[in-house]
Amino acid sequence: MKIFNTQTKRKEEFVPLEGKRVKMYVCGPTVYGDAHLGHARAAVAFDLIRRFLEHEGFHVSFVQNFTDVDDKIINKATEEKTSIGEVARRYALSYLQDMVALHVRRADFYPLATETLPVMQDVIQKLIAKGHAYVGDRGDVYFDTESFPAYGKLSKRPKQEMESLGAQDKGLSEKKNLKDFALWKTRETKNEVGWDSPWGYGRPGWHIECSAMNLHYLGESIDIHGGGQDLIFPHHENEVAQCEALTGKPFAKYWLHNGFVNINHAKMSKSLGNFFTIRELLKQFTGDQLRLFLLTSQYRKPIEFSLDILREKLPLNQRIEAALEYLERNLQVAGLTPTLLYNEAYRGDYGFAATSTTDETEATAEENTRKSLVASREKFLQALRDDLNTPMALAELMNLVKIIQAWNKPPEVKSPSPSIVTIKFTFIILREILDIFGLYPRDSGNLHPAVTHLEKFIDAKLQERTQARKKKDFKKSDAIREELNKIGVEIQDFPNKSTWNWRK
Ligand SMILES: [Zn+2]
């Protein structure tokens, strides 16, 4: 399998550091708002890579962090007169619910920055001791980029550019060099969010967070480090510097970066305000529809988004679903349970010899069909082995769907019906391919069932409260308001009714 490595700027054969084990780290979201389609793209891209690696026989340990301390989270908490923990928890949960809807598998670990502080402080201390970091005149700690001659090797940015970006750090100590970046930022008063440290009360820099988590959860050298292309500089460049200066060993063997989701050719981002949250899209589309749309472009390429472009792709989902339904229906008629059948099938082992039919002519026709199905499957896998070429893989998936569609037509136009043996064979291939793509057409619910359940609960509580208000039982109605408030629900009362919304 070949993957494009940002560090060498070319496609390379993927060979993990240790046998079949793959240590993979992907930078997670800063949790201060609902995740948008840009986050979904990164999540789906790295989920696909993980699924495919596992299909290829690798064992993947997958770590993704949540940045739960950041100026944006602090501002939001101040605005809402709540704690940063409450804001972070709310949006981390919201992110995880979105991921369930998108069929993004759970990471093995989701470390939080605030829980990894001792590790971060330990790393900073060791960097200072080794002469790779220094304490500035106001107590901030900086990484000394001059002490790490390879600085810039990942992003290959010109020195001047790195310096002018570094000059944007405001309100901190004097730096020795403009490229130097903060590992610890001291705070003037303890009224601000922060933690005690050997260098004074303050907060960690963002880059040290991911380095500490990598070292703690995966070790000194990892196989894959992933994230969006916007993270290459300075975030990943700084991670390389911190880790390699500390350990003297190569940090990540492969650096993988996903492209942006664009709207009118501009990057979708929270700061630009041109974004669609996953949550709002899930009101109109299924997780599978969003996921397949994201897979229509190779993960490193930009993908242009609009509601119309998304709608144009929906027939792909419908055709896949119809093909799957046709196969399942036929299996059930023959007394077979599709899920059991698939679970029992070893990948690529269809449970029978290719020449098991006795009738000569039928055997030939069926054999040819099966051969073309196997060829489609192989082309699908080959496309993914070439730096996860999902558009080409999708074309092969649709080829397979086309073969199945031909069986599922009115009698006068359809191809001859295949035997149950071939149906079984086809089902196993299709399900296997859909598993790699992470598509589960049966799971057509828009939001995770837990969310729907919670919303029903809130509606019922609100009705109960309306009844209480009608009876002028304000004690009870206030108690219900209080109860809902605790889970982040805000109620608005109108003369004839009350409505609710998640607290913004
Ligand atoms: Zn990171």
Assigned CATH superfamily of the largest domain: HUPs
> Given the structure, what is the number of helices?
16
> How helical, in percent, are the residues?
40-55%
Bound molecules: zinc ion
The tally of structural domains comes to 3
Roughly how many Å is the radius of gyration?
Answer: 27 Å
Rounded average pLDDT: 91
Termini separation: 45 Å
What profile does the largest beta sheet have?
4 strands, parallel
Strand order of the largest sheet: 4-3-9-10
| CATH class membership of the largest domain | Alpha Beta
Beta-strand percentage range: 5-15%
Write the CATH architecture name of the largest domain.
3-Layer(aba) Sandwich
The backbone outline, from C-alpha atoms, is flat
Helices and strands in order, then pairings?
Elements: E1 2-5, E2 10-13, E3 21-26, H1 37-55, E4 59-64, H2 71-79, H3 84-101, H4 117-129, E5 133-135, E6 141-143, H5 159-166, E7 181-186, E8 202-204, H6 206-217, E9 222-228, H7 232-247, E10 252-258, E11 261-263, E12 266-267, H8 278-281, H9 287-295, E13 303-304, H10 307-333, H11 338-344, H12 360-385, H13 390-407, H14 420-437, H15 449-470, H16 474-486, E14 489-493, E15 498-502
Parallel strand pairs: 3-4, 3-9, 9-10, 11-13
Antiparallel strand pairs: 1-2, 5-6, 6-7, 7-8, 11-12, 14-15
Bound molecules: zinc ion.
